[in-house]
Amino acid sequence: MFDNITKNISKIFDSLSRKKSISEEDLNLTIREIRIALLEADISLAVVKKFIEKIKEEAIGKHVLKSVSASQMIIKIVNDCLIDLLGNEKSEINFNTSQPAIILFVGLQGSGKTTSCAKIALKLKNKNHKKILLASLDSYRPAAKKQLELLANKIGVDSLAIEENEIPYQTTKRAIKHAKDFGYDALILDSAGRTSVDEEMMNELVEIKKLSNPSDILISVDAMIGQDSINVIKSFDEKLKISGAVITRLDGDSRGGVALTIKESTGCPIKFIGVGENVEDIEEFDPKRIASRIIGMGDVVSLVEKAQEIFDKDDLEKSAKKLASGKFDLNDLLNQIKNMKKMGGMSSIIKFLPKSSQIQEHLGKLGNVQKDISIQEALILSMTKKERQNPDILNSSRKRRIAAGAGSNIQEVNRLLKKYKQMQKMTKKFGKIDKNKLQEIIKEQNIQDPSQLNLKDFM
After folding, report:
1. What residues contact 112, with CB distance under 8 A and at least 6 apart?
2. Would you place residue 447 in the very low, low, confident or very high pLDDT band (cuts 50, 70, 90)?
3. Domain 304-427, CATH class in plain words
């Protein structure tokens, strides 16, 4: 997702920041390189042209070349223009309506519509604490209703009971009554799709819209179809007045041009983006945070929010207390590995960090980090409870048994133990920290970066 454009723009800005002063020629070259990066990201020529003109206008208006921090000003201008291109403000699901809030999902067949219904239901359940009912209106595609029912069971939300030989209008009516009778906060209607936009489908959707009066009409769009998605959105918007788009399979499109173009080309805001195959792999679309990621500044806030949704608060507090006491065993390391997997693995976490493209390049040279983590997990799972709690008892015969159980070798076991001892040593140091003295030092020295701290100063 946005890998290519982030990589290209990060290189442009890195080159710019190394210059002591910036000439008019430097500015023109930077703008030209940004233009190429946008075109390579599959953004339409008309949108790119407008975007570049805005950057030029802002740069000239703010007298960038005469500024002492010209490179930083250019980065800020590009960031601001990107935010504006992406829609400026975050667009959320409209719950400012009588219960239940009805969300009508539309889109072409194969765009990931049904899966997106489940993903958004899970997001609203976990983050917004809403009681959700899912209902499939697709009586044309074989097993479509069963698919939604299975997804609902998987994420722990309710789905409308399946009635055979029921037309979409009847199912909509029954779903609304059921949602009102049982006090649901939101009803998500998964409408039937077609392989292409046709009059029959549109007429059916218009009737469903009149009956349900939805607070949101979301269109599911596959990022892999590129700029064709603009025409799809316009076709649906003409008849239904779409309130938001959900971009699916954005993880499979490293260019991400469709996400950068939709708001400018259609006026339709993006509300969610699908970033993986799992039901948890969906993100709310925040223009400011996405722009920050694209220019290589990262998005740590979204990373923290994602962690808060996935992790159990009580478990995290127990782990924090244990680490604060200076205790750390292989069970704790295993929990860290499992938590990383819940977050989508190392590569998923890195995408939220500043300079993510450089970090990924660096890790690529070091080898397959994710593979190493999987081996470490397998080795720990091959140990007995006693061995995890006290790794010091691991002799040669135990190591051979563990390695064989994990399909690995003794060298990998030794690597794991070395890593564990390093982490154990670090937690023991932090366990001895005088918390009050730490706060005093941070306040007195105005330390922004924890790496500036010397542990010896307050132990």
Report:
1. 220, 222, 248, 249, 274
2. very low
3. mainly alpha
Assign 214 to helix, strand or coil.
coil
What contacts 208, CB < 8 A, 6 or more positions away? 104, 137, 168, 169, 172, 189, 191
Show the tokens assigned to 279. Answer: 């039901």
- pLDDT tens readout for residues 104-158: 999 998 889 999 999 999 999 988 899 999 999 998 887 899 999 999 999 999 9
Boundaries of every domain in the chain: 3-86, 101-297, 304-427
CB 272 within 8 A of CB 283: yes
Asked if the model's pLDDT at residue 288 lies above 90, the reply is: no
Instruction: Please report, as a single letter, which amino acid is at residue 43.
Output: I
- What's the rounded Cα separation, in Å, for the pair 128 and 23? 50
Residue 194, classed as helix, strand or coil, is coil
Determine whether domain 3-86 maps to CATH 1.20.120.140.
yes
Q: Residue written as tokens 């400012």?
A: 96
Greater confidence, 236 or 165? 236
CA angle 198, 201, 205 (to 5 degrees): 135
Strands in 282-284's sheet, in edge-to-edge order, are 158-159, 132-136, 186-190, 101-107, 216-222, 244-248, 270-274, 282-284
* Collapsed DSSP state (helix, strand, coil) of residue 219: strand
The pTM is what? 0.69
Secondary structure (3-state) at 227: coil
CATH class of 101-297: alpha beta
Say which range, 205-209, 221-225, 425-429, has the weakest mean pLDDT.
425-429
Convert the pLDDT of each residue in 301-312 to its tens digit: 556 666 666 666
pLDDT band at 380 (very low <50, low <70, confident <90, very high): very high
Q: How far apart are CA 438 and CA 450, in angstroms?
A: 11
Q: Which residue type sits at 293?
A: R
**What is the Rg, in whole angstroms, of the alpha carbon atoms belonging to the chain?**
26
